[in-house]
Design a protein that fits this description.
224 residues; mainly alpha; Arc Repressor Mutant, subunit A; 4% strand; globular; Tscrpt_reg_HTH_GntR; DNA binding; DNA-binding transcription factor activity
Length: 224
């Protein structure tokens, strides 16, 4: 199925924002976007309108288009929500994680482990895939609740979570390895069906991720 020019522009710009090719707080030039994507202004303007609704950009009168900043307040709100949501789901609905989910967790961890080992030995390591697997790990836990409101809440934070993961992982490779260790600890408690301990371990993991994100923002020159 052929992708429309509007959808092409939207997907291209959104992807570059999420993978931080367009860095937080950077300005986007509409004419340059048209050249990059090889489309006219109309699809680009439509895409920018959609991205503004998703809070991924800000359209400032007489100034232009700026990629939404990642600041301390934003990170605090995201992790405050995640700490309330994810450990609760695991403690309350962990018993819904069946053998099929266990196998998916193991596959996520196995693939992540192989990719993270490449990070220290190769400049071509697939960081994007590592972050996708990180998201898949947490999404599996959230979806185990079978509660559409919980799932939608997690989805609402997905774009900002992706940017945080990419910034933290790109600027702090050690955090990738620590995240993997923490995911293994969480998975081990789930497999032992010790859901309370798994939830506590998950909460500690989220707090460590929050601290890492803070450090990236404070050291990276992004808007506070």
């Amino acid at each position: 199925m052929k992708v429309s020019l509007k959808q092409q522009a939207y997907q291209t710009i959104r992807t570059k924002i999420l993978n931080c090719e367009y860095a937080p707080n950077s300005y986007l030039n509409e004419e340059q976007l048209c050249k990059e994507i090889n489309v006219s202004r109309t699809p680009v303007r439509d895409a920018l309108s959609r991205l503004e609704q998703e809070n991924l950009i800000k359209i400032l009168p007489k100034k232009g288009v700026v990629v939404a900043p990642l600041n301390i307040n934003e990170i605090n709100m995201i992790y405050e929500t995640r700490v309330l949501l994810e450990p609760y789901i695991l403690a309350t609905y962990g018993n819904r994680i069946d053998d099929d989910h266990f196998n998916k967790l193991k596959n996520i961890i196995s693939e992540s482990d192989s990719l993270i080992k490449l990070v220290t030995t190769s400049s071509s390591a697939d960081l994007t895939r590592i972050h996708e697997l990180d998201d898949a790990f947490h999404k599996l836990i959230v979806c185990s609740s079978e509660n559409p409101y919980f799932i939608q809440c997690y989805k609402n934070m997905s774009a900002q979570n992706t940017r945080l993961r990419i910034l933290s992982g790109s600027l702090n490779k050690d955090r990738l390895e620590k995240t993997q260790i923490e995911h293994i600890e969480i998975a081990n408690e789930i497999i032992k069906r010790n859901y309370k301990k798994a939830a506590d371990t998950l909460e500690a993991h989220l707090m460590a991720s929050k601290d890492a994100a803070f450090n990236v923002i404070l050291s990276g020159g992004f808007e506070l």
